[in-house]
Amino acid sequence: MYNTKIMEILQNPQNAGMLRGANAIGRADSDICSDIVKFYLQIEDGRVVDAKFKTFGGATLIAVCSVTTQMIVGLTVDELLNFNVNSVLEVLGELEPQKDYCLNLASQALTNAVDDYYKRLEKEAKADSE
To answer: Fewer CB atoms near the end CB (10 Å): N or C, the chain?
Structure first.
């Protein structure tokens, strides 16, 4: 059912859990099923220095999130906005067609995290100017 790489990652997912001090949090919910993804990012000087995830989902979603968090650390916010979550497939291999939504969930959660980051920056700037 799942390919070998997904099963390997499921045995030892990287970056699972919350990230204290995250200054960018993005969540995405599936329209197809009840899966949920939440990314926690720590961005310093415009660059992702740490990333974690929590998910309510199956093996494929866990693997996609684990690989995604590993790939985005070190990216600038601009690079993160342009991150093609399909590059995760280079690590995981082909997904079952019915599991492609996992990539879309991860992409949406990343976009939402960047939106959250910019909202926080705007809020800080407003507070500083008062």
So the answer is: C
Q: Which of 19, 3, 1, 117 is nearest to 64 (CA)?
A: 3
Q: How far is Cα of residue 109 from the mean position of the Cα atoms in its chain?
A: 6
The runs of H, that is alpha helices, within the chain are: 4-11, 59-72, 77-81, 89-92, 101-129
Dihedral of CA atoms 29, 58, 26, 64 in degrees, nearest 10, equals -130
* Half-sphere exposure for 97 (CA within 13 Å, toward CB): 0
Q: CA-based angle 51:117:13, to the nearest 5? A: 15
Residue 41 in any domain: the answer is: yes
The percentage of residues in the chain with a pLDDT greater than 90, rounded to a whole number, is 85
Are the C-beta atoms of 93 and 60 separated by less than 8 Å?
no
Distance from C-alpha of 112 to C-alpha of 95, rounded to nearest angstrom:
24
Element (H, E) at 29: strand 24-29
Instruction: Kindly report, residue by residue over 36-69, the tens digit of the pLDDT.
Output: 999 999 999 999 999 999 999 999 999 999 999 9
Q: What is the pTM of this model?
A: 0.93
